[in-house]
Design a protein that fits this description.
This protein is mainly beta. It has a four-stranded antiparallel sheet with strand order 2-1-8-7, with no helix packed on it. A four-stranded antiparallel sheet has the order 3-4-5-6, with no helix packed on it. The chain is built from two helices and eight strands. A hairpin with an 8-residue loop joins strand 5 (123-133) and strand 6 (142-152). The N and C termini lie far apart (103 Å). The protein has one domain (50-173).
Amino acid sequence: MHRIRLPAALVVLIAVPSLAQEKAPRDPPRPVPAPAPYPIARAVKYPEPVTLEVEVRDGKTLLWSGSLMVGGPRSASFSQSKNEYLPPCPGEEELTSWAAQNGRRTSLRISISPGSRHALPDSFRVSINYDSPSDDCGQRGSNTLGLERVVTLQPRTSDTIRAGSGLMLKLKRRD
C-alpha cells in the first residue's frame, strides 16, 4: 500500500466578487420580440353551388325524386322514414307476433357531397341507403340496399347508376 504525503498546510482559494463589482450597473433587459403572427390562410376556392335533379328507384318503384343543391364544402342530403302497422303472418297471435313487435319500417337516406375540388371539380360523392321490410312471413326482418359512388357530371349532363340489387340512381346536373 502506498501513502501519499500532503503538505501540512493546504491553501484553498475561493473567488469572492468584490463589492465594487456587485454595484456595477447592469445592462437593461432586452425586449422580447413579439411572436410571429399566424399565417393567414389563403382563400380556398370552392366550386360554385350546383343543383342536381335526383331520382332513386328500387326496381320500378320510385322511392324519391327531387332536387338537391351541393355547394362549397357542404353536402346535401335527404332522408325519410316510415313506421307503420304490419299484420301478423297466418297462424301468429296478434300481440306476440314479430310483426306486432317491430311493425313495417322503411327508410331512405341520400347524401351528395362535392368530390375533389382540385383534381375533379365536377365530381360528386353519392351515398344511398334504403331499408325495407322483408315481405316473407317465414323470413321476417329487413332488406338493406346501398350504393356509394363518385360521379363526374359536366353542366347539363346526366348519369344513371344501377346497383346489382335493383337500386337505381339517376342524377341530372342543371347548370
